[in-house]
Write a structure and sequence with these properties.
The complex is a heterodimer.
Chain A (H helix, E strand, L loop, with lengths): L2 H11 L4 E3 L5 E5 L4 H10 L7 E9 L3 E9 L6 E9 L4 E3 L8 H12 L2 E3 L33
Parallel strand pairs in A: 2-5, 6-7
Antiparallel strand pairs in A: 1-2, 3-4, 4-5
Chain B lengths: L3 H6 L12 E5 L11 E7 L2 E8 L7 H5 L7 H5 L7 H16 L5 H29 L4 H21 L8 E2 L2 E2 L7 H24 L2 H7 L7 H6 L5 H4 L7 H4 L20 H23 L20 E8 L4 E8 L7 E5 L1 H7 L1 H5 L4 H9 L5 H5 L1
Antiparallel strand pairs in B: 1-2, 2-3, 4-5, 6-7, 7-8
Helix pairs in contact in B: 4-5, 5-6, 5-12, 6-7, 7-12
The chains are: A alpha/beta, B alpha+beta.
């Protein structure tokens, strides 16, 4: 499907979605509360079949956090970027590790780096950082580490 | 800091479920993990019940580092991620910056890049093949593979000045022109290599002991491959059409004649065969290009200070391990606001537990070897 067709189809699925300009793919913004149900539809819908979550990450915008999910269909070869804005003080969103299994590791990475809590995640522990880093989120813009960070 | 004590503390008592399970640690210093990877394995007898990878021993926070490096500087850090595919990592970064700046790369530079990419792929698969056989107890193949790999390293060193972290690609092209002997050396290498590559099959692939250890081990279905986000030879071993060079071609790959290698076995042996066949395909690509390097500039003219327009950019390339994606969020400045490397090893490792659960501890190495893990690529 082209971006225009995707736009029509996704609005049908969830009327509350908004679209953002930028990037080569269609950017869809969803409410965090609606994300899990929408994700399941994205994967199971016959016309969409987004079965491959090839990138899952988070961006710290200083006022809020944005979760970014890059999805592609291996059968239909179209892609979409889904974004969800989270509150920076208490970021919470449902996990999609049941829908795309790769999300389990990627969400653990986002959890430790940005402090986003993934609700109903099967094993939400630190992955890369050593024990004792809970609560300190190195990829946030206001993170300070005078010992290990060298400012140029 | 010592997380494993928690497991020992919580060990089940007699009569509780899980009593008699043995938790062993493979790594972080274990020859079979090829780097500092730590696996916490729960065993019942010889059967693996669960594998929990423990990462981060070589985490340098490359993504955070890149936020304070300019678009010319950050490319050099990426050579240190997947150090066996250094050129291809650099290629991804160069492409994403060129996409943002809308720079037209001279054809000569594109051909040079593809030539080096494919030489890198051969060198990486060579090292994997030798190390894989060594994991299974055969020491000789390691010397065979390093004999050929050394030839590639010499070619790289002549042109780039380095053997491992080459840093040869820059936004707009390559750093300097090819060494005058490049074509001659590559042709010598191809002549030697085509004579030797059959030895690999004779020495290892056809070996009945090797086949018995590889077949049916570490099976993963095509649906699970997609769900776990596996790419590269791991995905193609299960028959998933996933070669970025074919799915969304970059550079000049759409003009080249080569096949995407697909196997349907889904086991360790299928992944092994995919890599062996990929080496033949890389030779095919190099042969097409080595006599047809166009004359012209090796670098496009770019400004001294690069500024990506505000927006988001994503570029993926096919490294020797799978799909490497670079996602850049730019605010219009000289440094990226946020950069994310979607590394192939990270996703491939996440499928390890699924692949080997219920198998025997002895098969772990045969399954993990065919994932071709490079730990700095996983930890970043």
């Amino acid at each position: 499907m082209t971006n225009e067709e995707l736009k029509v189809k996704l609005t049908e699925l969830l009327p509350s979605v908004t679209f953002e300009e930028g990037g080569e793919w269609l950017n869809v913004v969803v409410e965090p509360a609606e994300w899990l149900a929408f994700a399941k539809q994205l994967k199971s819908d016959e016309a969409l079949q987004f079965d491959f979550l090839f990138c899952l990450t988070c961006v710290d915008w200083k006022t809020h956090l944005t979760m970014v999910y890059h999805l592609r269909s291996t059968k239909l070869q179209h892609a979409v970027v889904v974004k969800a804005k989270l509150d920076r003080t208490k970021p919470e969103i449902e996990t999609v590790s049941d829908t795309w299994r790769t999300a389990e590791f990627h969400e653990r990475e986002v959890y430790e780096m940005f402090g986003v809590h993934f609700l109903h995640h099967p094993d939400l522990r630190l992955l890369i950082l050593p024990a004792g880093w809970e609560g300190k989120n190195p990829m946030r813009k206001d993170f300070e580490d005078p010992v290990n960070m060298i400012k140029l | 800091m010592y997380r494993e004590t928690e497991i020992i503390k919580d060990a089940p008592q007699f009569g509780e479920p899980g009593f008699g399970d043995l938790v062993i640690n493979v790594g972080p210093q274990h020859p079979a993990t090829h780097g500092v990877l730590h696996l916490i394995i729960t065993l019942n007898g010889e059967t693996i019940k669960d594998i929990k990878p423990n990462l981060g021993y070589i985490h340098r926070s490359i993504e955070k580092m890149c936020e304070s490096l300019t678009y010319r500087q950050f490319i050099y850090v990426t050579s240190r991620m997947d150090y066996l595919s250094a050129h291809i990592n650099n290629h991804a970064c160069a492409l994403v910056v060129e996409k943002g700046l809308q720079v037209e790369v001279p054809e000569r530079a594109q051909v040079i890049r593809v030539l080096f990419d494919e030489l890198t792929r051969i060198a990486s698969h060579e090292l994997w093949w030798g190390a894989m056989a060594m994991d299974l107890g055969a020491f000789t193949p390691f010397f065979h593979s390093f004999r050929e790999r050394e030839t590639i390293n010499v070619i790289m060193e002549e042109t780039c000045g380095a053997r491992l972290t080459m840093n040869y690609y820059v936004p707009g092209g390559v750093m300097w022109d090819l060494h005058p002997d490049f074509q001659k050396r590559v042709k010598e290498f191809l002549a030697l290599y085509k004579k030797k590559i059959h030895e690999y099959d004779e020495l290892v692939t056809g070996n009945i002991i090797f086949q018995n250890r590889m077949k049916g081990i570490g099976y993963i279905s095509a649906e699970d491959v997609i769900s776990y986000g596996c790419t590269g030879p791991v995905a193609r071993g299960s028959g998933v059409h996933s070669d970025v060079r074919k799915v969304s071609p970059y550079s000049i790959y759409n003009k080249l004649d080569f096949d995407e290698v697909l196997e349907t076995g889904g086991d360790s042996f299928a992944r092994y065969v995919v890599r062996i066949k990929e080496m033949h395909q890389s030779i095919k690509i190099i042969e097409q290009l080595i006599d047809n390097i166009p004359e012209g500039d090796f670098q496009a003219k770019t400004k001294a200070v690069l500024k990506l327009p505000k927006g988001e950019y994503y570029q993926s390339v096919e490294t020797a391990r799978g799909e490497l994606g670079v996602y850049i969020v730019s605010e219009g400045g000289t440094t990226p606001y946020r950069i994310k490397f979607r590394s192939p090893g990270f996703s491939n490792l996440s499928a390890l537990n699924h692949m080997i659960k219920g198998g025997k501890i002895g098969d772990l190495i045969a399954a993990m070897g065919t994932l071709d893990l490079v730990i700095p690529d996983i930890d970043r």
